[in-house]
Amino acid sequence: MTEVWGSPRPGAREGRRAPGTPCWTSLLAHDLESIQDFYGGLFGWAFYSPGPRQLGPYVRATVGGRDVAGLGELAPGVRLATAWTTYLAGDDADEAAEWIRCLGGTVGVGPLSAEDAGRLVLACDPVGAPFGVWQGQELTGAQLTGVPGTPAWHELVTRRASAVVGFYRALFGYDVKPADAETSDYLTLQIGDRPVAAIRGAGAELPRDRGPHWMTYFEVADTDAAALRVVELGGQVLRPPHEGPAGRVATVADPEGAVFTLLRTAR
């Protein structure tokens, strides 16, 4: 584990999250039932519905009885591409929406209340990367980290980190530091002295079919075995397992095309 990636440890994560901390990740799929089969088979997730949802069918994924992610279903006839959305913690979703607009971003959904769970905004930053702001109430964020099946890291992949870092710094007050001397366009977003996320400038390697996007990394016990399991369950391996700065990683897609990264954190 490197300093760049912070130091997540196994255990519960309850209570208020500092503004700007990635706190939740959620997927809107076209077929909620089949996508549950995929992620349940891959990560061992169990699912439950938290109650009536004004935004449509939605379940929370759990590991050991603790909430770790959300899965929802798009309305019939909506042909949007599926993707994991990173939510950043905020104290006031309404104020965050105003700041997003003032700073050159776009608010697509909200601010609105998700019943007693919290209040949310779905937006795009000035270069088009979708993200969410979550003002947690009953649900402050993922309740478990550092074990297989839980979100381990969140990273914005864009063409040039310098083109958008000012937006996130102004919105959340991050301290920004270069990740290392060898990677000039990879910046860590810090709260105090703790890295919480990163922005990676991919340049010409940015996938044209995806554009700027937030990438969710999920912890696994064995990256190679998990990548094979992705294929067995109907997904794809986009970048085979290899060693990265924080451990062994592989970039994969679920059967509906939502991209995410498997990570076996270096110990």
From TrEMBL:
Where in the sequence does UniProt note compositional bias of the Low complexity kind? 1-10
Residues forming the VOC domain are 150-265
What protein name is recorded for this chain?
VOC family protein
* Superkingdom of the organism of origin: Bacteria
Note one Pfam family from the annotation: Glyoxalase_6
Q: Which organism is it from?
A: Streptomyces nondiastaticus
| SUPFAM superfamilies from the UniProt entry | Glyoxalase/Bleomycin resistance protein/Dihydroxybiphenyl dioxygenase (SSF54593)
Q: Where is this region: Disordered?
A: 1-20
